[in-house]
Amino acid sequence: MVKRALYVKNMNAPLAVPVTVGTTAGGTVLVAANPARLSITLQNVGTEACILRLGGNPTNAAYNMVLAADSGTRKGTGGTVTFADYQGEIKGLTEANTTIIAIIEELSTP
User: Fold this and answer.
1) What is the pLDDT of residues 81-105, one digit of tens each?
2) Structural domains in the chain (count)
3) pLDDT tens digits, residue range 23-67?
4) Alpha carbon distance 62, 12 (integer Å)
5) Among 54, 76, 80, 90, which one has the highest count of C-beta atoms within 10 angstroms of its own C-beta?
6) How far apart are CA 86 and CA 49, in angstroms?
7) 90, 30 in Cβ contact below 8 A?
8) What is the 8-class DSSP label of residue 14?
């Protein structure tokens, strides 16, 4: 078994600022491409569903998946996804209002 160090870049904790996603055409960049990324986990901790697009601009017709809304802000019931070995950009978009996405990246270097 190979041991890897976990370097947390951004997560919904007192130390970090989560990303707010809205209805802006072309989406909001959740994370930029990062060649040092080993894995990334995103959780919707806001009250609006969030459309995700890997490596492109999300629209209602062009997206990879939807993260379900949380039952209340930061209740822990919102949609969660983890990508292993994806190093590209990820964007999000909501249909109405805004939502909050908590992000944890595992990086090969700090």
Assistant:
1) 999 999 999 999 999 999 999 998 8
2) 1
3) 999 999 999 999 998 889 999 999 999 999 999 999 999 999 999
4) 27
5) 90
6) 22
7) yes
8) T
